[in-house]
Structures
1.
Amino acid sequence: MKTETTIQGLSASLNPARASRKMIGFVPTMGNLHEGHLNLVREARKLCDVVVVSIFVNPIQFGPNEDFDNYPRTLEHDSHLLAEVGCDIVFAPSVEQMYGNHPRLTNISVGEITNDLCGLQRPGHFDGVAVVVTKLFNIVQPNYAFFGQKDFQQLAVIKQLVRDLNMPIDVIGVPITRAEDGLALSSRNGYLSEQERKTAPTIYQTLKTAETDLHNGQALSDVLEKIRVNLTDAGFVVDYIEARSPSLQKIDQFDQDVVLFIAAKLGKTRLIDNLQVKYSS
Amino acid sequence: MKTETTIQGLSASLNPARASRKMIGFVPTMGNLHEGHLNLVREARKLCDVVVVSIFVNPIQFGPNEDFDNYPRTLEHDSHLLAEVGCDIVFAPSVEQMYGNHPRLTNISVGEITNDLCGLQRPGHFDGVAVVVTKLFNIVQPNYAFFGQKDFQQLAVIKQLVRDLNMPIDVIGVPITRAEDGLALSSRNGYLSEQERKTAPTIYQTLKTAETDLHNGQALSDVLEKIRVNLTDAGFVVDYIEARSPSLQKIDQFDQDVVLFIAAKLGKTRLIDNLQVKYSS
């Protein structure tokens, strides 16, 4: 496995693969990798000849009061993990390398589907994601790119961006990887205290209960309210609980497939999760 | 020469060239071609193995009161001209093909350098240009793209866009092609009456006079004022007269290379031109 820290170095490493028309798979990450990321890499490994993983904590997707400075940077450990799951090239550029050589004047925004859910509490977040993903796509020029369904809204934004701009890339959404107790894996889980970590799986439990309740015919609004009560009782401060179509349209009845979204704070840590509930008439 | 009207057809036509790593040159146009466009194609022909010219009147770069509906569409004549100068593939998609298959939510804006000059009178214009050029770049995936220096601000915007987003494309600016009397060639010249056509070269004459005046040591502000007087006397309604650095920074003294920009209306027709004046101390 190679590690490249410059765009030029990465191009040099990828040129032979491009020249022989090999399929390039790309997994963009911010590092601090866990099994969720490794499953993205395994999926890429299955479909592609060459697997590139980027590790870049992207400053422009963090708000002024967010955790950019303290976001865990664990390149050495990440590299060991990536080598084990068959990554070919780690691309770990500096902020300077990605943004430093001239003032950036270009912004990309994906409207409507970024205005609520996580977009509401994090203004500019998805613009920052759209810009960095576009840059990385242009640098790596992959055939396939892999994103986790845990960040379901992010996945929807990137699919929309790729479609709107005719990017020649297939975007693959990979199911959420969960701990044995159901907690969706996330880099931010590391911020949880021992007690909070024990409480955190309540999010997934409420989602599974909601799935059962919906299939038993309970009204969607009642089910959402029950989630809110259960989370609040368990000590969460709820940011949002929403029901959407898989393409993020608002829905108010369970008469089609629905994705249930939760964002809630436990202490200082903001956790998100989602569950797609299939409709069968 | 092939003509393709669908993205899929174009990809099929270009795949053999891509597979054999040929250099692809791309000239995006809105059709109604004149010698200025043909010089872009000749330049592409010199540098590249395969030359693609797109003809697409892009609705989203026209304002509500602009000439989208009446913009001349002359595909058959354009095709004859392109075949003569060695174009390999004409890409002439419908609006449906470019924008029709789903609602577009993505916007791209290039800040600062789009807020004045032509951007001031045409809000949203350069966003529309940035989106369509990005889409076309992703569809054609050229190695080189060619743009005329007549639309100097557009060229600067596209260079900035490509740099900011790490697009793997070399953008080449090609000098303005002029009629014998100095008028910069433009599709919009066709809107001029016979009498207006005789007056139109005044724009270039004032630019050349300004160049001489600057080299003779006249103050930049005086030179700009003299252009304004001369154009107004000749019957133009001046939109702007500006002096900028080649990267579009405002300058108020002739102590570096300067680009003089003019936009002015003659009757109902808005004409633009520019001249780069070299500084030598």
2.
Amino acid sequence: MPFIQFDGPQMSKEKKAELVAKLTQTAHEVLGIPEQAFSIIIRENSMDNIGAGGKLLSETHK
Amino acid sequence: MPFIQFDGPQMSKEKKAELVAKLTQTAHEVLGIPEQAFSIIIRENSMDNIGAGGKLLSETHK
Amino acid sequence: MPFIQFDGPQMSKEKKAELVAKLTQTAHEVLGIPEQAFSIIIRENSMDNIGAGGKLLSETHK
Amino acid sequence: MPFIQFDGPQMSKEKKAELVAKLTQTAHEVLGIPEQAFSIIIRENSMDNIGAGGKLLSETHK
Amino acid sequence: MPFIQFDGPQMSKEKKAELVAKLTQTAHEVLGIPEQAFSIIIRENSMDNIGAGGKLLSETHK
Amino acid sequence: MPFIQFDGPQMSKEKKAELVAKLTQTAHEVLGIPEQAFSIIIRENSMDNIGAGGKLLSETHK
């Protein structure tokens, strides 16, 4: 712990590596918890599977 | 917020759109929170990845 | 399954009962899955623990 | 309820069945809750999507 | 990783310790992943916050 | 979307505000998604409710 679940769009492996590195560093700096203690799961979602305000993102972002 | 995570089976894009629209409307009516404030993530799961009562759904629903 | 996780604000027991009944009925009608198969967890959150657009809701909703 | 979300690596259907059976039995024995009440979702993750200590598992497990 | 989220009822610290120890050991035996790699979060829920089949557990378990 | 769930220890409101601001900014910079699109839920956990390597953190961090 801490444990971060990140639900976002599809992304490249390079972006995942950068996201994991920087989110971990940022949270470490704010909370003073060692970087080694952090785990992150990135979940990649289709715009068909996300709703905002009652509409699918795949419809509103056309 | 509110934020809804919906774990269900595979479904068509039309069903996803209907589900997002109607769950948002329903929760809006119950809680009085504007529809714009709602986010929903639909997670589609294989029956091989769900257990109920100690058995996979893919076994019990054969 | 399906399984719904609902993150929202504090609410009364009456609202929880109504939310569980109506979300279940709504999803049942959309997907044709029996109501008995649905589980819902309601998580009640302080406005101090929710961020939107980089700000706590307890700050933006003052 | 109880409801278990298990984030792990890719695994065979046989391992999923064994995991669901044994986690359910174990939790039943500890808590005294009937096995029928347990639901489990297994989420299979790529090593590219998991970070530990600021690095992707796909990098540290090379 | 693996990461287990366990949503259950209120329980004593002794039960939490036993649950964490035995779920970790069980999953280790099934998957062959070292026990050190497992994290578990136990979330304790009021029966007012759980719905099954459209009804709160606090109503159906009276 | 994106949606971030952050499971960590108890923390002050000031730390929560800083965490939400900086995680949002960091993820915005990595992914190029507008800050307004991000939601974060902070879940505060007792060390009695977190297990690592089969032991409660409240035991290993004594």
